[in-house]
Design goal:
Blueprint (H helix, E strand, L loop, with lengths): L5 H7 L3 H6 L1 E8 L7 E2 L1 H14 L1 E11 L9 E10 L2 E11 L5 E9 L1 H27 L25
Parallel strand pairs: 1-6
Antiparallel strand pairs: 1-2, 3-4, 4-5, 5-6
């Protein structure tokens, strides 16, 4: 069973495999710069890999854990962080929800100030599109089958909050 602290330790170690192990298969990742959540362990892991690259000088500064009344049910954890993105200071919060199995079922990220949040959205959006484009080229070996392989989580909208049509 996962406990609060395991996700934090994995992120601080930049150990993507360890982070992935604590994510529930149906995890939902929400952000203020995305219209719809990224859903599923593989999709969220891909996004977190990009965030590991984009965030500079990332460090958690505080941690809050809330227990359900009478100790019934899984806890909720808030991790406050500081980082830089393309030279801009970012402050943020990772809000984690845990399921009955102890795995992370929800991850909501909030960042400020707005200019840094928009810089983050653009940087992540570009990298997600590049990664999806490379995956699309590997999948079809360059053949044009009319599919939109331009990136983002399928049906979830891109990190900039836009959806593809």
């Amino acid at each position: 069973m996962t406990v609060p602290g395991t996700f934090r330790s994995a992120v601080e170690a930049k150990d993507l495999a360890a982070v992935t192990r604590v994510l529930d298969p149906g995890i939902e990742f929400r952000s203020p710069v995305m219209v719809k959540p990224y859903i599923g362990r593989d999709t969220v892991t891909s996004l977190l890999a990009v965030l590991f690259e984009v965030f500079e000088e990332f460090r958690y500064t505080d941690e809050l854990v809330s227990r359900a009344p009478n100790g019934a049910g899984p806890p909720t954890q808030a991790l406050i962080f500081d980082a830089r993105v393309l030279g801009k200071d970012v402050q943020g919060l990772d809000l984690l929800s845990f399921g009955a199995t102890g795995l992370v079922t929800g991850l909501t990220v909030m960042v400020r100030p707005l200019p840094a949040a928009m810089t983050l959205a653009r940087a992540v959006g570009r990298r997600m599109e590049e990664a999806a484009g490379k995956a699309g080229k590997r999948a079809d070996d360059g053949a044009d089958d009319g599919r939109d392989d331009s990136g983002g989580a399928e049906g979830a909208g891109g990190p900039s909050g836009t959806t593809r049509s």
